[in-house]
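User: Run a structure prediction on this.
Assistant: Running it now.
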Amino acid sequence: MFTVYASTPENMGPAAIAAHARRAEALGFDGLQVPDAVHDGFLLAALALNATQRIRVCISVLVAFPRSPMNVALSAWDLQALSGGRFELGLGTQIKQNIEDRYSAQWSAPAPRMREYIGALRAIFDAFQNGSKLSYVSEHYRFTRLQPFFNPGPIEHPHVPLLMGAVGPVMTALAGEIADGMITHPTNTPPRYVSEVVRTRLAEGAARSGRSLEDFRLVLGSLVATGPDEKAVRREREKWRGMLGFLYSTPAYWPSLELFGWQERGEQLLALTRENRWDRMKEVIDDEMLDAFIPSGTYATITAELERRYAGLAGSITLMLPEDPAEDADFAAVVAALRGR
């Protein structure tokens, strides 16, 4: 069975997140993922944790490089203390254009910098918990000063799980080498890709550090088309057809297309964006592609479909809450079945 996380729409803001988190907890989810996109991930996580009693809350994923690891460590430490150990931190790199032009921050090779970033966070956490001298110096970071006045001190649950969002081969292997887990992108979540590519790269990274992946958490961020009846499922499939068209217009997401022999579809989609023909993009995603990438089924059948696809490949999956709360009772049964409850 799976650990099941509820996802949060990227445009959901602080006013709505508490009710969303309470609803996810009532539906029986193990955890909630909150984004760091339109709104600040730490603010959303704080409100979600404060509104709940049981579920974990994971930022999926925090845009790391524009933020100092010290600022991130302080926020993560406070949320871990506030929640009694229910906070998880996903870290991501974003693309060069966003780092430089949206955040006005410095870009550098992402994998080496992420290695340093996680190393810095763990050194800072150790100083917080154990009072050890802070001494972490790398190419991009220098942390050598932490006066007692600024040290928040030890907490009951000092291990903050650090997960990585990863797509490419280098970053995926790095996750296997140093992170507590990895969160997949919808484009690198097809079962064949997870089996043949993602898990292989994670194992390569783990071998470099001599670690076992037994406790490593692979969280599958698949888009799922489900609903109370076939009509609702078809509607969801069309929504995700459009989303895949948008996502696969970005060359960074093409490796999974290449595995299936569909790279020319990505090139077609990129050309449509350059021609400003956004309304034609979903036509490139035929039913064969949709079936490969999108688990589909009614509430009565989706559990079996997800188990067929992902059992043995990963221990955690994500699902979106129904748009209509009237469906919550039926959806809670899906969550319970996936959790083996």
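Residues 3-228+301-339 form a domain with the TIM Barrel fold (CATH 3.20.20.30).
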